[in-house]
Design a protein that fits this description.
Blueprint lengths: L10 H10 L11 H4 L2 E6 L4 E6 L9 H13 L6 E6 L12 H6 L5
Helix pairs in contact: 1-3
Amino acid sequence: MADEKDTPFSPIENKVMDALEEVIDPELGIDLVNLGLIYDVKVDDNGECTVTMTLTTMGCPLGDILNRDITKAVTSVEGVTKCNINLVWEPVWDLSRMSRFAKIALGIHG
């Protein structure tokens, strides 16, 4: 059985990821996708989307703001009827999950 992470995104899941690139972390000014906070996106046959993600820290005060912005972005995708956010703490987020773009934007070299 193949690992779920090896399964490529469907066209609608790719559109959800594109929409999530518009959701900016207010503290860092970088989108959630480039920060590496989005771990997975699944859209079922009924248009229900589940976004598996984490936050940079457990005590992140931005949970409600991000929840609203994520839901708005995801449900803006044609064919998506509902957004569920699956907030996880494992695997733990670290700087290695950030894209090269995010690292350069934040002045992180290496």
